[in-house]
Amino acid sequence: ICYWDYGKFLDSNAGVLISAWDYVEATGDLKWLRQRIEKLEFISDFLARRDVDGDGMVEATQSGNRGTLIQPARSCCWIDAVNCGHKDGYSNAVIYRAWRCLADLEAKLGRDEKRSHYAALADRLKAAYAQVLFNPQNGWLAWWKSADGELHDYATPLINSLAIAYGLVDRARGAETLTRL
Description:
mainly alpha
């Protein structure tokens, strides 16, 4: 049993979208993109449907609740297969970037309605991200918020730095977060 045996990693879907954007940016190969855009949209639409409560964040199938670590669905992201889930900071950060990338790819093809759709998904995620994951007790973002409402906060530089780098938090909050961490 290893990572390839698990099908519940949300970040793997985002990785395909980001990689497609990387490829097109590096090569300018719009023919390749035209041949694959519908498959990329299919991947993105799966992620969008995982916003089960409509708040803008993509929820994992795993609850992330304490004591629910059950193989093979113990995590929703490959970065560290701990018992995380529900509203996961890492997965949602890369999904945000993936939707921004897909919006850019749609723009390259002149598909303005689709570009607007994926940009709107990214905007909704951004509006919810810090609101859901910010821990006012210490001034940084928690790793995830489980289905039972608990913030799981392990003072992780990865989650906070991705949120800052991708613009999910404003510059002032980002600077304060780094100082506190």
